[in-house]
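Quick review question:
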């Protein structure tokens, strides 16, 4: 059995790769891959959902006030991706400026800086070590990076130099799940503002699948580790309590348990 998995921008890539694998299997192309399903976390899927629900998420986190949120709803009329008027553009600029004050990947963490600071707590120590590992010549040689092509590696670069030729991966999710492939979609339920769990729930609901096992908590060591719901066509959605973008970076034990149970075809 073969499964695909990935986080964040992989929400675009993984369903597409699975789609091509499905086509190859139908054509009996070699090697035959026994694809069973895929799992994606905090997945970038469609800006129509991610950007629109970022405003709601910012309001829920207390980053923007009631007044600002109400002004956004009044002037943007639910479309926060492309402002239709000047008042909408102005309030969205205000919201973007306020969001820039925090780490949108995890609203409780300190804001990321490009120059790696001296580690002062356990949460940032791994990032501190990553700087030296990624700039080590042996690491670069192992990754096949040609000398002189990439300068100093630093964290927190936001650029994604990809051709935006697939605006939405939702059609691929629909095709794969209705063809019998299993899917686990998980999200930080409470701290990720880059891909709010509200947006993930919204595009999943747009598939119009019936509910199998309704919303409930899932547990680890006797504590709620998040919440989950299953839909028809073997689609499971789960949140990871305390996670950020991406969830396994912040809650590895919980995410490992979640993935292992799902891969074993057991209830979360």
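Suggested answer, residue by residue:
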């Amino acid at each position: 059995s073969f499964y695909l998995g990935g986080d964040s921008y992989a929400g675009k890539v993984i369903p597409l790769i699975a789609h091509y694998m499905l086509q190859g299997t139908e054509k009996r192309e070699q090697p035959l891959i026994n694809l069973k399903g895929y799992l994606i976390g905090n997945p970038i899927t469609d800006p129509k959902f991610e950007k629109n629900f970022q405003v709601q998420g910012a309001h829920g986190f207390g980053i923007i006030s009631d007044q600002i949120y109400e002004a956004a709803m009044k002037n943007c009329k639910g479309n926060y991706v492309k402002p239709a008027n000047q008042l909408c553009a102005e309030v969205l600029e205000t919201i973007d400026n306020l969001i820039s004050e925090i780490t949108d990947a995890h609203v409780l963490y300190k804001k990321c800086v490009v120059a790696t600071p001296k580690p002062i707590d356990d949460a940032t120590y791994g990032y501190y070590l990553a700087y030296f590992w990624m700039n080590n010549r042996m690491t670069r040689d192992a990754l096949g990076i040609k000398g002189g092509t990439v300068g100093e590696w630093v964290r927190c670069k936001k650029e994604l130099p990809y051709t935006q030729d697939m605006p939405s991966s939702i059609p691929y999710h629909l095709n794969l799940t209705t063809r019998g492939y299993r899917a686990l979609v998980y999200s930080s339920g409470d701290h990720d503002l880059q891909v709010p769990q509200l947006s993930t729930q919204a595009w999943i609901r747009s598939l119009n699948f019936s509910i199998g096992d309704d919303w409930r908590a899932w547990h680890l060591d006797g504590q709620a580790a998040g919440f989950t719901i299953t839909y028809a066509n073997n689609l499971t959605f789960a949140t990871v309590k305390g996670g950020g973008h991406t969830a396994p970076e912040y809650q590895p034990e919980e995410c490992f348990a979640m993935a292992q149970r799902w891969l074993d075809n057991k209830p979360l």
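Why it works: Strands lie at 2-7, 35-41, 182-188, 216-220, 223-231, 235-240. Residues 47-99 form one domain.
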